[in-house]
Amino acid sequence: MHSVTKSNEKAESINSTMPANNKERSMMSNQCHSSTYQYSFRIVIKNEISSSTTTASKPDGIEKKKLKSIVNKYLIVDCLKGLKMLPSNSIQCIVTSPPYNKLGLREGSSYSGQIVYDTYDDDMDEHEYKRWQIDLLNEINRILKPNGSLFYNHKDRRYRHRDYPPEEFIIRSDLNLYQTIIWDRSCTANQNAAYFRPNSEKIFWLTKSSRSTVTAPTFYRDRLPECFKSSIWRIPPDRKNKHPAPFPALLAEICILATTDKGDLVLDPFAGSGTTLIAAANLKRSFLGFDISKKYQAMFKHRLATSNSDINMWKEFYVVEKIIDKRLRNGHVEYLLKWKGFDHNQNTVSEEEKY
Ligand SMILES: C[S@@+](CC[C@H](N)C(=O)[O-])C[C@H]1O[C@@H](n2cnc3c(N)ncnc32)[C@H](O)[C@@H]1O
């Protein structure tokens, strides 16, 4: 295992690569304590699959690959480097969840249920982590289509009797915070008696913004089952997935169904086991994923080869159905049948899918 550290890019050069955000600039310069703040972050690479430490380098120096050549692929590449390959205004939907930097926030002290990634140690200096995520979000603001959507899954972390909500850095990015969805996981490994059980995470629905405009995203709420039409989604974690920190396929599917059409391109820059990409493929969307682990890429390939485009979503959906109350459940099953094209009068299922 070795670490790759790069720390020689000045804050000015970062700002020149992406739309300036004055609020962010002044906040960062207050926090950096020095006008010669050195931008740095570290990726610890165990398997030496890539030494792709990336920085906010000149976008002009990187060839903008034709999207066609990288569509429906899972690339082993650093997320920022991957994003910089993409043309502006090219992606309809991104569903992603970064590492949460739990070890870094805790200054390296271990915690119960610690997440151990294959090629990443999740132990950045917290300030660098926030800067990294802001850079990433700003780059996403560039590549999103004007009516596109980013669903960014993160959660409030705790350390030393304090909550660290991700809003602290998200609102300092260029993106527009369109809505916050609460993901009710229904359970938690954290049973600390000193505070309420933290069994939720957040899904930040973020949209493109520029200095002068914020455009409303494409949104098809009518397609969704009733229990996902509100801003609290109850979805149990996927315990079958061998990745250390996956989100459930159903979560990705709801985001994709709500904001894309067949054929649209869906991206996950922290692809992991490829949950977002599988969901996109099952819903007949195109996909693109980045990660730095070949092991996770192999997991994805296996999942793609064995997934059944019709069954996955509904199997997961029925798990949700089981844990909601009976009255609602009946309503949802009714809705589900209607949505799948089931005609009660004729007792048939129409050929045409509704999404
Ligand atoms: C929270 S997991 C995402 C899991 C994914 N949503 C799933 O369902 O499988 C975060 C992922 O980010 C990857 N990662 C960490 N640093 C990265 C980087 N610099 N570029 C791309 N991926 C990175 C890790 O390998 C890990 O798979």
How would you explain this protein's 3D organization?
- With 355 residues, the protein is of the alpha/beta class.
- It has one domain (66-324): Rossmann fold, CATH 3.40.50.
- Helices cover 32% and strands 22% of the residues.
- The chain contains twelve helices and 14 strands.
- It has helices at residues 11-15, 22-32, 67-70, 79-85, 102-105, 126-143, 167-170, 249-259, 275-282, 294-306, 311-323, 326-339; strands at 2-10, 38-45, 73-76, 91-96, 144-154, 157-159, 162-164, 176-184, 200-207, 232-234, 265-268, 286-291, 342-343, 348-349.
- It has an eight-stranded mixed β-sheet.
- Helix 9 (275-282) links the parallel strand 11 and strand 12.
- The longest helix is centred in the middle third of the chain and has 18 residues, at 126-143.
- It is globular, with a radius of gyration of 21 Å.
- The structure holds S-adenosylmethionine.
- Residues 43, 78-79, 97-99, 117, 119-120, 243, 245-247, 270, 272-273, 275, 290-293, 296 line the site of S-adenosylmethionine.
- One of its GO terms (biological process) is methylation.
- This is site-specific DNA-methyltransferase (cytosine-N(4)-specific).
- Its EC number is 2.1.1.113.
General shape = globular
What Rg is obtained from the alpha carbons, in whole angstroms? 21 Å
CATH class: Alpha Beta
- Name the structural class: alpha/beta
Mean pLDDT: 76
Helix content: 25-40%
Q: What's the CATH H-level homologous superfamily?
A: Vaccinia Virus protein VP39
Which regions have little confidence, pLDDT < 50, spanning 5+ residues? Answer: 1-62, 323-327, 340-355
What spatial order of strands do you see in the largest sheet? 3-12-11-4-5-9-8-10
Order of helices and strands: EHHEHEHEHHEEEHEEEHEHEHHHEE
The total of helices stands at 12
CATH architecture: 3-Layer(aba) Sandwich
Tell me the number of strands: 14
Main beta sheet strand tally, sense and closure: 8 strands, mixed
The CA-CA distance between the termini, in Å, is 46 Å
Strand content: 15-25%
Domain Chromo: 318-355
EC number: 2.1.1.113
Family: Belongs to the N(4)/N(6)-methyltransferase family. N(4) subfamily.
Region (Disordered): 1-27
